[in-house]
Amino acid sequence: MNAPNSTMKAWVYTQPGLLQWEDRPLPDAAPGEVVLQIEAVGICGSDMHAWHGHDPRRRPGLVFGHEFVGRITQSAAPGFEPGTRWTGNPLIVCGRCEYCLQGRNNLCADRTMVGMTRPGAYAEYMSIPAASLIAMPQSMAATTAALTEPAATAWHAINLSMRALVRPLHECRVLVIGGGAIGMLAALLLRRLGVTRVTATELNPLRRAALAAQAGCTAVDPRAQALPEAAFDYVIDAVGAKATREQSFAAVKPGGVIMHIGLQDWASEIDMRKLTLAEITLLGTYTYTTADLRATVDALDRGLFGDLAWVEERPLAQGQQAFVDLDRGASAAAKIVLRP
Fold first, then answer.
1. Relative to the CA of 253, which of 59, 153, 198, 228 has its CA 20 to 30 Å away?
2. What's the CATH number for 7-147+308-339?
3. What's the pLDDT tens digit per position in 204-231?
4. C-alpha distances in Å from residue 154, one per residue of 52, 164, 179
5. Domain spans, the chain
6. Per-residue pLDDT tens over the stretch 297-329
7. Cα 326–50–135 angle (5° rounding)?
8. What fold does the segment set 152-284 form as a domain?
């Protein structure tokens, strides 16, 4: 047990647009759980959405953060030894429902989530069920390991899409909408999978430059340059706004596939007439499975996502400013990783 007065620093969401740097009690490991000393944690678009006050599931008083890597300092789970390093699945699932038994545990009806229903990783320490931990090379750089969660989101989405495409992925002309972390990681993975014709749209000029330099794709500002209509075999909407959904339907070819990842706007009209008459396949995706996370760790270790030079590291103590800078578009980085 931790001493009663043992505390740690954590960023606590208190109101829209504000995280407070507070002292919090050190977590204890409940049976079957471990406590991780956080080494790195990424800022996710969903955390930004919640920071703006747009996610009723994340309420004031919560510690955000679900893209993490850490070292076990306390264990109440056999086989998980203090001192070992792990990343993890922030989805805490039941392991018994039909989806878990099918290997599609991202759809578990009883799931909870680190950084949403329990304290997350924008802190010096965090507790988590040991069953959620994902093994990683002990020598892997902390920032690289912290990218497992967002990279697995792109991995899962592209894997789902390939089942629906009529022709092999490498033959396709692909549009990626949004140059945040998911869009960047998707573009990088598409290039590594042999796709030579990738166009990405992004409003932030700094991110457009990073997309062109790092992913080798054509990066355009959709406000200044109209995209060709009905020209892309495969469209990835990594934003999920009303405008980007309309952009997706305008850009996709008859018989093409739209993969919808982003959740910026929760509802809008879509062109059901085109969906029907042009035989468009519209797919939704939610996070990743445990198998995706394990495959992504291996892919990151083998360098499939490149050198990750586009990722920016900052001290954890600068967390609120990092959110502000991302909100203002003041950073070229598609991903900021905080380091305690």
1. 153
2. 3.90.180.10
3. 999 999 999 999 999 999 999 999 999 9
4. 24, 16, 13
5. 7-147+308-339, 152-284
6. 999 999 999 999 999 999 999 999 999 999 998
7. 85
8. Rossmann fold (3.40.50)
